[in-house]
Design brief:
Helix content of chain B: under 10%
Structural class of chain B: mainly beta
Radius of gyration of chain B: 13 Å
Largest interface: A-B, 25 and 22 residues
Strand content of chain B: over 45%
Number of strands of chain A: 11
Number of strands of chain B: 9
Number of helices of chain A: 0
Shape of chain A: globular
Order of helices and strands of chain A: EEEEEEEEEEE
Oligomer: heterodimer
Largest sheet of chain B: 6 strands, mixed
Strand content of chain A: over 45%
Structural class of chain A: mainly beta
Shape of chain B: globular
Order of helices and strands of chain B: EEEEEEEEE
Helix content of chain A: under 10%
Number of helices of chain B: 0
Distance between the termini of chain A: 40 Å
Radius of gyration of chain A: 14 Å
Chain lengths: 127, 106
């Protein structure tokens, strides 16, 4: 059974860099049929996709965060990571990692849905 | 930027049918997924590719697509279905979530 677990600091000061890691168990981050993603949720608000990565290095980022985000994968540790620079209070949120499936139709493949999700980790940005 | 529009709230009496809509300009060209999130829990997918139900999701959950609107229907709604529901779709490899709908079971 595939499981994901986020880890990283829960409290940051403004202007610092947020760094989170997602550890994958019960499956391989090197699966060719999977992307891996980060999604966040400010307290009491909705979901916002941050970005996704394939073990090959292919990445997609939310245009609104692209200038501050880097997602990377470490196949040797079966992990993928998120870095978000120059954080502000607006970046306070629960951060989730999730597997992103791919479906193919004919010769074309498309990004699909997020499943499963990690339990989430609350990151608070405060001076 | 691409947006998906959901009603903020829907109420339904227990045992009745609940319908939650999600509208977006490109939904006719892209598949959508639906996620259920209960308080303090991570989201889980209940419908993917507009109409497919993952294993383990009760049959009372179904999805339909018509034009630029996708709909999540819960038949015979139970108290345990009270949750926030989010639709999600893709726009040029960018994931977009709807604002979420709070389902209240009366």
């Amino acid at each position: 059974q595939l499981q994901l677990q986020e880890s990283g600091p829960g409290l940051l000061k403004p202007s610092e860099t947020l760094s989170l890691t997602c550890t994958v168990s019960g499956g391989s981050v090197s699966s060719s049929s999977s992307y891996w993603g980060w999604i966040r949720q400010p307290p009491g608000k909705g979901l916002e996709w941050i970005g996704s990565i394939h073990y090959s290095g292919s990445t997609y980022y939310n245009p609104s965060l692209r200038s501050r985000v880097t997602i990377s994968v470490d196949t040797s540790r079966n992990q993928f990571s998120l870095k978000l620079t120059s954080v502000t209070a607006a970046d306070t949120a629960i951060y989730y990692c999730a597997r992103l499936g791919i479906y193919c139709s004919g010769d074309n493949c498309y990004l699909s849905y997020f499943d499963p999700w990690g339990q989430g980790t609350l990151v608070t940005v405060s001076s | 930027s691409y947006e998906l529009t959901q009603p903020p709230s829907v109420s339904v009496s227990a045992g009745q049918t609940a319908s939650i809509t999600c509208s977006g300009d490109k939904l006719g060209d892209q598949y959508a997924s639906w996620y259920q999130q209960k308080p303090g829990q991570s989201p889980i997918v209940v419908i993917y590719q507009d109409t497919k139900r993952p294993s383990g999701i009760p049959e009372r959950f179904s999805g339909t697509s018509s034009g630029n609107t996708v709909t999540l229907t819960i038949s015979g709604t139970q108290a345990m279905d009270e949750a926030d529901y989010y639709c999600q779709a893709w726009d040029s490899n960018t994931a977009v979530f709807g604002g979420g709908t709070k389902l209240t079971v009366l």
